[in-house]
Amino acid sequence: MSGRQRARQADSVILDDPPVRVALRYHARARRFTLRLSPEGDGAVLTLPEGVAPAHAAAFLREHRGWLARALAEQPTVPRLVPGTVVPIDGIDRVLVAGTHRGAPRLETDRIVLPAGRQPGPALSALLKKRARDRLVPAVHRYAAVIGKEPAAVSLRDTRSRWGSCSSARRIGFSWRLAMAPVTVQDYVAAHEAAHLQHMDHSPRYWATLRSIMPDYQIHRSWLRREGRKLHAFRFNGDD
Question: What pairs with residue 92 in β-bridges?
């Protein structure tokens, strides 16, 4: 999640079996080929060391097309944002319910009451953005203060490739979709980015710093790796 790592996006490759678009991403620090599904779950990204010939990339994809087909088949379905659909907020599943009020969605213990006269997607994304800002901004300042640092700015976007980022200018960014994750997971990402204010890499010193401000970070990191793709399955009409 550090802002120092640099990558170069190249052309995409279209595979016939399975039919899927694979983006080629050349990374200066890559030492091997890494194939992952795209955050949207409808394609894939192949990260390559600089200088690898396109023919070698194509051969690697042919060799691993079986894994890719299985991974795509296991992707969560895209939930429709209609009454009866379950949307997690702070890690708590809540059912969408049609309401008669105007304005913003109303968050209740086990349900989200949608306002009348608004499209659910933009209304829900506005709710998530506000909740993410209300929690993540004070959280990252709190963890940064523990190590004697201060972020220059904190922003929220609908980032697909990472949950948080920290630039060398001390500008920290978060995905507002974190508002759907458990509060402890939100805190983990805030702590993760705060620790980058001390070390702009993932060296042993960095992980020691993170551990000093969040000893159990690995539990929350594992949750995000295991469940995070489900949060990206929701579509909010392209609103970011």
Answer: 89
Cβ 227 vs Cβ 235: under 8 Å: no
pLDDT digits (tens, 9 = 90+) for 6-15: 545 556 666 6
**Closest C-alpha among 153, 184, 177 to residue 235:** 177
pTM of the model: 0.74
What is the edge-to-edge ordering of all strands in the sheet holding 153-157? 153-157, 171-175, 164-166
Burial class of residue 108 in the structure, from the number of CB atoms within 10 Å of its CB (0-12 exposed, 13-18 middle, 19+ buried): exposed
Higher pLDDT, 28 or 33: 33
Nearest to 62 by CA among 95, 118, 16: 16
Residues in the chain: 240
pLDDT category at 2 given cuts 50, 70, 90 is very low
Rounded to 5°, angle at Cα 174 from 168 and 176 = 165
Token pair 């049609």: residue: 98
Q: And the tokens for 123?
A: 């209304």
